[in-house]
Specification:
single chain, 104 residues, mainly alpha, 4 helices
Amino acid sequence: MHYFSSQFQLNQNNMKTTWKLIGMLINRDTKRRSSISKLIFDKKCYTDKTDICNKLNEHFVNVGQSLANQLTMIEEDPVKYIDHSSPNSFMFRGICTYEVTDLI
């Protein structure tokens, strides 16, 4: 266990190595591949590999928009949730060429 602890510490900024360590820790077989032999989508059963691929693609292409459509849109200014100023911070904003010309 000390090995994994030290390896996680050494690789805390390396996500690829961290996930490899997690795989080793849980004894995950990276060579094993699974395939979907049956998919139920919209109350229909699909067994053909092409149909399964198309239905999975259809789902993942549309899932973001489907979830976004379920959100309630609120016409509020998000800045209202910022309740304090940070005097020691700064931000950059875009500038236009005429602003630079005016300064010169």
